[in-house]
Target: Gfo/Idh/MocA family oxidoreductase
Amino acid sequence: MERKLRWGILGCAGIAVRAVIPGLQQSERNVVAAIASRDADKAKETAERLGIERAYGSYEALLADDTIDAVYVPLPNHLHLPWTIRAAEAGKHVLCEKPIALDAAEAARMVEVCRDKGVHLAEAFMYRHHPRYRMIRQMVESGEIGEVRGIHGAFTFNNAANHTNIRYRRDWGGGSVYDVGCYPISAARLVLGQEPEAATAHAFFSPEHDGVDMMASGLVEFAGGVALTFDCGMWAYSRNTLEVLGTQASIEVPSAFVAGPDGGYNFFVVSKDGRREIEVPRGNQYALQGDEFAATVLDGETPAFGPEDAVRNMKVIDAVLRSASERARIVI
Model:
């Protein structure tokens, strides 16, 4: 029988309960064996509801469980660094929710510690593990849409009425760039296969929400006059799209980052010949993320996205946030 990776979940966050745990449970090579919360009753209730073997009343107790191979960290952004390091020191591989840290320096520290402890570290950008992004990259690289002239990404939602949400705590790493702007930034880097040179951003910082950026618009410059334009927000109508514009055609991805567990992954190519729908294989992107992680840990396969990629993405986020704050163009 093929060995499976045994997971512990550090916290009962919504993203863990709604998406990551079910995805791991649907995957081929992973088992969710334990969950922890600082509230023991909450951990127990969540474990019973999701069919998880063990529940712990502290993160420390889960990390002390020798049967756990890997942990998923869905905690608020300011806790990613300390708990990733503690997990690595306990010999656990780590899947950390995005953004991996509060800045590139923190991310680099996490990468360094995990490397020293011999554990795998990955950032939980689930969307890029689905085959549709390999299909999009191949289409771009083949020249099917001509030369790339620009990319536009949008990721917005409206949750502004929930003033107690952790996304609205400045000291916890709140704000729309951290929460959703990181997706189009990551996607542009992925599609173009290169790192940007500079960033400029403008943001709406809301006094009602601890001064975090509730909406941001940005320009991220790549070589050759190509740029990503993006907007992200937590006080705006919901959108979740990506467009890659070429000289001969454009690629439209309507559910670019968040899609249904088994559908909604198709995208479109628009050209002088019309709008053509590209059929994409079904598959839960959270399950695919888990199986790729397991292949790295259990089989020694090279990860599609190494931990250094997370540091490079944070460098762009750092520049975007600094630009929005200083109202200036920031060279990366």
